[in-house]
Amino acid sequence: MLLSGGAGATELVEAELDDPRPHEVTVRIEAVGVCHTDLLTRAALGDRPAVLGHEGCGIVEQTGAAVDTLGVGDRVVISFASCGRCGQCRAGHPAYCDRATALNGSGRRLDGSPTIRVGGAPVFGGYFGQSSFAAAALADARSCVPVGDVPPETAAPLGCGFLTGAGAVLNVLGPGAGDRLLVVGAGAVGTAAALTALSEGVEVVVAEPVAARRELAAGFGARAFNSLDDRLPPVTHALDTTGRPELIARTLTLLQPRGVLAVVGLGPATAAIDVRDLMLRGLQLRGCVEGDAEPALLVPELLLRYEQGRLPLDGLVTTYDLGDFDRAVADQRAGRVLKPVLLPRR
């Protein structure tokens, strides 16, 4: 497993993974995406040892006694954890599960038990219900979506990053033919959103300062600009992936009357918003977690579009060995790659 510790250090270590409980499965990880949230969590944990990773894809190797939806040998994407019982889950919005924070960010099961030990000592695990920077991960069967024969490195980011961008377009913004979507920040989430909108016949405008990312977006059919201060056309819908307050406020000014902006990036907690303009022009400002998606429904839909050639997600991925985590992060931060995906050693 890839263990994170103090001063941002990471190392591959031997670890002990719990056996699956009745509703859990053990998944042999074939590929796992690197998400910005992993880096934020690593920084927040400080010196606390942790196994992170929350975009795992792999083969089910063991199932708990109560699991009847998956079988040994199934290839699955592991997405975020949810309880399946609260009002939000039952309404089809598991990203807003009443127990989302405890299930995804506590580092343990709900009963407080650890899932991973290193040298006999418990470490922070069960991250987003998985901790998939590893050769194997333990997850609730509810979080696992069968994906068939799709390449695991392409499927893995559907656990979070690609799911978030695509879901924001399909489940929250809902643009259609004749609309124009502005995507602010063409990282993995933003580019997945742009590709999804293009697959819907929507005109897409991207604002992104990194030239390589602009070129990639343009190659897929989007109109790419360096910043929001360029001469952008008016837009009906917008997605902010940056979390930067000044960009959120500026994006609202670019919307046509009755336009809608969804925000998916984590940044400062407050922003200066012109509420008078929001009201007079009938604008909407929406928050969005995990694309407001039910993974069991959206992941198969996105894979169908991929297989039809309408959603070329494989063009966003660059693979690395699991032990090359730090190089993958450095390449992503430098804009040399869009979505790093780690491959555990065999």
UniProtKB/TrEMBL annotation:
<dbReference type="InterPro" id="IPR013149">
    <property type="entry name" value="ADH-like_C"/>
</dbReference>
<keyword id="KW-0560">Oxidoreductase</keyword>
<dbReference type="InterPro" id="IPR013154">
    <property type="entry name" value="ADH-like_N"/>
</dbReference>
<feature type="domain" description="Enoyl reductase (ER)">
    <location>
        <begin position="5"/>
        <end position="342"/>
    </location>
</feature>
<dbReference type="InterPro" id="IPR020843">
    <property type="entry name" value="ER"/>
</dbReference>
<dbReference type="GO" id="GO:0016491">
    <property type="term" value="F:oxidoreductase activity"/>
</dbReference>
<protein>
    <submittedName>
        <fullName>Alcohol dehydrogenase catalytic domain-containing protein</fullName>
    </submittedName>
</protein>
<keyword id="KW-0479">Metal-binding</keyword>
<dbReference type="InterPro" id="IPR011032">
    <property type="entry name" value="GroES-like_sf"/>
</dbReference>
<dbReference type="InterPro" id="IPR002328">
    <property type="entry name" value="ADH_Zn_CS"/>
</dbReference>
<dbReference type="Pfam" id="PF08240">
    <property type="entry name" value="ADH_N"/>
</dbReference>
<dbReference type="GO" id="GO:0008270">
    <property type="term" value="F:zinc ion binding"/>
</dbReference>
<dbReference type="Pfam" id="PF00107">
    <property type="entry name" value="ADH_zinc_N"/>
</dbReference>
<keyword id="KW-0862">Zinc</keyword>
<dbReference type="InterPro" id="IPR036291">
    <property type="entry name" value="NAD(P)-bd_dom_sf"/>
</dbReference>
<comment type="similarity">
    <text>Belongs to the zinc-containing alcohol dehydrogenase family.</text>
</comment>
